[in-house]
Amino acid sequence: MTRDERFEKLAAEVGFPLNEEIKVGGKYTPVLIDAGIAYIAGQIPRVGDEVRFVGVAGGSISLDDAKRAAGISAIRALALLKNVCGTLDAIVSVPRINVFVRSAPDFTKQSEVADGASDVLSTVLEDAGVHTRTSVGAIQLPKGAVVEVDFCFRVTR
């Protein structure tokens, strides 16, 4: 399977429609390519108009659901980049991702939540999906989402 085929299969499994416009939450561009690096604005687990997994990891949201939310955020980022580049074959590497987890005071598994995004990158991009990352707890995130993830991709055009 190609990267694009793996991506389409994964998006279908979570019910992410690839033919719809990806909504953004403000006056900014969701993708900016500068000197071969594609910067993807923070992505929450929004599918269409619905923010999935609103709540707090370690509270109203389970670890497994928080990981799913991070995975949806990664799917959104890949969809945005595919829309700009035409194919995920344009991705050379993933230098960095940052994962922000809306966390209960005693929740310490932010890294495990981040694995949801890392798993998507690995599945779709294989070796090119290897990346560095930071995962941190947050008191609040946009729209009450349990997770927000931003990405840097090295791309060719």
Automatic annotation (TrEMBL):
SUPFAM superfamilies: YjgF-like (SSF55298). InterPro entries: Endoribo_LPSP/chorism_mut-like, RutC-like_sf. Residues 14-138 form the Endoribonuclease L-PSP/chorismate mutase-like domain. Pfam families: YjgF_endoribonc. Gene3D superfamilies: RutC-like. Signal peptide: none annotated. PANTHER family: ENDORIBONUCLEASE L-PSP_CHORISMATE MUTASE-LIKE DOMAIN-CONTAINING PROTEIN, ENDORIBONUCLEASE-RELATED. This is RidA family protein.
